[in-house]
Amino acid sequence: MSDRVETVSDRSPSGRTESGRRSDRSVTTPGDWPLAYHTLRNMKPVQIAGIFERRLRHAVVPRLPVDFDARYEKRVPDELSITPGPVSANLTRLRESLTESERARYREAASEAANGRFTFLDRTIDFGEQIDWNHERIDEYPRLWRLKLESFQGFEWVALSEESASAVDGHRAALERQALEWDAANPIGAGPYLRRSWIPHAVSLRVLHWCRYAAWCADDDISVPDRLLRIIYKNALFLENHVEHDIGGNHLIENAVALVAAGVLFGEHDTGWESTGLDLFEEAARKQFLADGSHFERSPMYHVTVLRRYATAYDLLSSIGRSTTGIETAAERALGFLSQLVEPAGRIPLLNDSVHGEAIEASTCLAYCRACSLTPTERSLHHPDGAGYRTFPTDTGTLLFDVGDVGPPHLPAHSHNDQLSVLLWVDGDPVLADTGVYDYEANERRQYARSVAAHNTAQYGGTEPIPIGGSFLMGKRTSVSVVDEGPGRIEARHIRRTVAGPSYEHRRTVTTIDSGWEIVDTVTGDSGAAYTVRYHFHPTADVCESSDGATEFDVRRDGDWIASVRFSGADQIRLTQTPYFGEYGREQLRAMIAVEAPPGSDVLTRFSTDAIPGQTSTAEETQKASRTTSE
Predict the structure, then answer these.
(1) pLDDT tens digits for 556-581?
(2) In its keyword annotation, does this UniProt entry include Lyase (predicted)?
């Protein structure tokens, strides 16, 4: 036994220098070249073309003797009018779906933003009265920090937290001043093109936030500065020309909802944006959702985000009489999937790139979809073309088993090495939990969060099932398949075949028993290496060695016993601690049990919620009989 803490590097856990700047780890690192190759070879032509187009524009546009900002300004009508009704009504539905704690959090964040103080990824900059868009600390922080700053979330926060715009005149004046100053300091084409202020993803978010804000003000008979309306229009024009077909995934859906919102808000100007957005939503409905209704990036956080956008688009387009059959079908299937995946407490499990506190709560998303007149269409999680999640409920809890492949081959950005991983809830509370995400920088925390060692599964030697590197790179893919499945039982296998490293096979069987669950692991490989089975517990779970011996552990919460964990077939068992990234930028330590075994042998794990001294499981009896026969 050992109480050693297993963490990422103490010397440089965030991949930064002493000054805080990001380390220079990217595809320029030779070790990542094979990963870049496998990532590129799985990309679609539109993605590769987009990479070269972006690099070309970034290099050429700032050097051209053309005032691109002025060109966009000329395309903005001299007299702008808005139709705020549909956007305002949709905003009200979203606001009324929020929990009181979410509204309180938005209210506080809006007040902070109005005072020039911004906290993202648990990192804060207090700008005071005027935001310095070139502040040196912005570039020291993860790139996601700047994206959030330049998406102007404060506008949505204030509109979601307050019914009346007149109740927060001071906040409104400050936020509007920030937007006008940003526009003056960041003209299109003056700096890095399609970077920083003009990343289309950031443009999409601020267009949506500003549209909601403008409709919220108009609903309270408060005029929005004409200059702000012109900025919204100009940003929508830019977005229309820079839709992220090359990136795809959730980015494309963010583009789509921003264009729909702007098209509906500026409906009298016949922009055609709502039609463009509708086409994008229908394209994504065909390409981005799996047979069980899950979003193909397999991140519950992004699933909630894209489902929320589909609900918004459905609500807005329906209000202006547009046909929304494709959007409705995709949204209701996605809603059905979320209804089956949501934790008992109404939160998302942190599968793949997911954290709490980023998207709205899963329970809020469900309520918002219902408010938009969407009803869930549940399709079986057992569908062979689904995400590959299976749930095993008992009277006291639920175990989730991941028997699916990682995300889409052409879009591995948010995928983890979580093949055959499990999660567990007892009495509605999390017991076994995934790791979450610290940030998206190419640092050691990022590598750890995506690694097999960060998940509740088995690892052969020190091998990663799929090589990972950089921020989003992923190497040659492996395969996962279901071998046998029946009521309360499933056997699945994960195979890694490669000439560049060890090949192996991992078989895992999960069975529901009267008092809990049994998991049997077997790993065999060509190098004869030992394997390790890891179980990471939620930070609220206390784990200690049982009085019955070193192969059994008790799990408690707030001093109360909730479960026991018993192992057999192991050479060594260690109780240690590992990092948990439940929110962006935050790290906690939590208990982890690592079980080491020789190749080809079985490791039996039994989670019991009904402690009966001396009880022997069916799998244990079979294992003992097998050992007796072999002897």
Answers:
(1) 999 999 999 999 999 999 999 999 99
(2) yes
d(CA 507, CA 487): 19
Does the pLDDT of residue 20 top 50, yes or no? Answer: no
Q: In terms of residues, how long is the chain?
A: 631
Q: So what's the pLDDT on residue 337?
A: 97
What is the rounded distance in angstroms from the CA atom of residue 187 to the CA atom of residue 315?
Answer: 33
Burial code of 191-220, b = ≥16 C-beta within 10 A, e = fewer? bebbebbbbbbbbbbbbbbbbbbbbbbbbe
What are 193's two structure tokens? 């093109």
> What pLDDT score does 395 carry?
92
Average pLDDT in the 180-188 region?
94
Q: What is the pLDDT of residues 348-368, one digit of tens each?
A: 999 999 999 999 999 999 999
Q: What is the pLDDT of residue 64?
A: 78
- Integer Cα distance of 531 and 546 in angstroms: 24
- Count of CB atoms within 10 A of residue 374's CB? 21
- Percent of the chain with pLDDT strictly greater than 90: 76
Which tens digit of pLDDT belongs to each residue from 366-404?
999 999 999 999 999 999 899 999 999 999 999 999 999
Distance between CA atoms of residues 43 and 489, nearest Å? 36
The 10 Å CB-count burial string (b at 16+, else e) for 250-282 is bbbbbbbbbbbbbbbbbbebebebbebbbebbb
| DSSP run (H or E) holding 289 | none
Residue 111 token pair: 């007040």
Using CA atoms, how far residue 420 sits from 50, 290, 299, 580, in Å, is: 34, 19, 16, 19
- Taking the C-alpha atoms of residue 375 and residue 335, their distance in angstroms, rounded to an integer, is 7
| Residue spans per domain, the chain | 78-371, 389-630
Q: How far apart are CA 20 and CA 129, in angstroms?
A: 25
Identify the CATH number of the domain defined by range 389-630: 2.70.98.70
Give the CATH number of domain 78-371; options: 2.60.40.10, 1.10.3210.10, 3.40.50.300, 1.50.10.100: 1.50.10.100
At 59 the pLDDT is 72
Give the whole-angstrom CA distance, residue 155 versus residue 580.
31
Residue 135 burial (10 A CB sphere; 0-12, 13-18, 19+) = middle
- 3-state SS of 464-511 is CCCCEECCCEECCCCEEEEEEEECCEEEEEEEECCCCCCCEEEEEEEE
C-alpha distances in angstroms, 203 versus 62, 65, 239, 264, 314? 19, 24, 7, 17, 21
Q: Please state the φ and ψ torsions of residue 22, each to the nearest 5 degrees.
A: -65, 140
Would the CA dihedral through 152, 158, 161, 165 be positive or negative? negative
pLDDT at 18: 25
Q: What is the mean pLDDT of residues 188-213?
A: 90
Orientation angle between helical segments 273-287 and 300-319, nearest 10 degrees: 140
- Residue 489: strand pairing partners: 486, 511
Q: Tell me how far apart the alpha carbons of residues 425 and 431 are, in angstroms, rounded to a whole number.
A: 5
